[in-house]
Amino acid sequence: MAYTRLLRLFKIRAASLTNTRTTVGGWTFRKHVSTSAWRAQSRMSAWVIDQFGTNEVLRYSEDMPVPTITSSSQVMIQVHAASLNPLDVAMRGGYGDKLIKLRKDPFSIMDNDSGFPLILGRDVSGVVVDCGSEVAHFEPGDEVWAAVPPWKQGSLAEFVNLTEYEVSHKPKCLSHMEAASIPYVASTALSALVNAGGLCKENSSDKRVLITGGSGGVGTIAIQLAKAWGAHITVTCSQNAEGLVRGLGADEVVDYTAEDATYQLEMMERFDVILDGVGGDTEEWCVSLLKPWSGAKYVTLVTPLLFQTDSRGLLDGFAHAGSTLTTKVIQNIISNGVFYRWGLFAPDGPGLDEVSKLVDTGKILPVVEAQFPFSQVPQAFQKLEHGHARGKTVISVIEEKDGHL
After folding, report:
1. Does residue 139 contact residue 345 with C-beta atoms inside 8 Å?
2. Could you tell me if 273 and 197 are in contact, meaning their C-beta atoms sit under 8 angstroms apart?
3. Contacts of 174 by beta carbon, 8 Å cutoff, 6+ apart
């Protein structure tokens, strides 16, 4: 089997693809790496952080160890493109560190392992170069995409290791740069809409859905998912993003900066599901827009869990966040008969399979706001930090021989 996979790999990637380098702004970067070259590599290029902080902590390294297959279900991916999410900026500053370390290794709370150097990047589009012995759905040469869980080393590197269940075949109609804009926000949107919101393609045709902050990464995918399932979509965003969200399928749009924004929403028919990507004061008036005593659900993407575990420690943070959630669940059930829920990211390869089908049939489009080469990862972070995103910030990790990704 190993010989067959290796033979297939050589057939797919010609031997003429060489390990060349290019120099940009004083940094030396790998221009192209064939999918067979990794076998001769022990080190790889990556952007890492060695401590938490601002953009200055980002460091380019050519001395990171190439990940190896350590379990039968793992898939090793050569990264062609990655993208940034607000979570990457937050993690750079240490957000969620205690809980992420616990999820990565439950015994880590007993030692002083810092987890550094840390590779950020939660989206990957690339090519499989190796598989564990029990992997059934992928083989070397397959083009794939995936959302990298926060507790694993990220995609701002030449290679990344994931389990088979976190990986999906890339949509055929998208380039790697386009594909890299979707997995993390799609997995988050799926978890929020399906697991927390109870929506799916079989039950959404008569549902009214409100999405706040709809022009960001999760919002733009959530609009398209719910619309593909047949729901009626109302979106709040700034006035200059109205064209974008309407083009993605929003039926009604409310400018959240307008003085009468809340009044406009109150005059509409009540909603079955609200996906809140804004949080804060929005939560106070959003819940009243749901249909009372009809199984309606409020799902927020802005939860206090990681903040509480960071500031209070794991045990006290869990207890405080759990108490907050329980109180709000009970209050909303008693007062309005609506369900209050948190929308949390969950890695979901099979879910991405369904998203891939929707992409290939034209029902979901990638929304890319900015593109950067691998040499400009710090500039990409700066762009994301400016806020008011209209889609995703994408990074080309390797440059193909013909100049395309």
Report:
1. no
2. yes
3. 125, 359, 366
Answer whether 0.85 is exceeded by the pTM: yes
DSSP state of 291: P
List, in order, residues 6 or more apart from 109 with CB less than 8 Å away. Answer: 98, 101, 102, 314
- The span from the CA of 336 to the CA of 293, in Å, is 6
Q: List b or e across 290-314, with b for residues whose CB sees 16 or more CB atoms inside 10 angstroms.
A: bbeeeebbbbbbbbbbbbbbbeeee
How many CB atoms lie under 10 A from the CB of residue 140?
23
Structure tokens at 141: 């040469």
Alpha carbon of 294 to those of 85, 297, 298: distances in Å? Answer: 35, 9, 12
Going by C-alpha positions, the residue among 273, 213, 224, 217 that lies closest to residue 247 is 224
Q: What is the pLDDT along the chain (405 residues), one digit of tens a residue?
A: 333 333 333 333 333 333 444 444 444 444 445 555 556 678 999 999 999 999 999 999 999 999 999 999 999 999 999 999 999 999 999 999 989 988 888 776 666 667 899 999 999 999 999 999 999 999 999 999 999 999 999 999 999 999 999 999 999 999 999 999 999 999 999 999 999 999 999 999 999 999 999 998 999 999 999 999 999 999 999 999 999 999 999 999 999 999 999 999 999 999 999 999 999 889 989 999 999 999 999 999 999 999 999 999 999 999 999 999 999 999 999 999 999 999 999 999 999 999 999 999 999 999 999 999 999 999 999 999 987 778 899 999 987 544 444
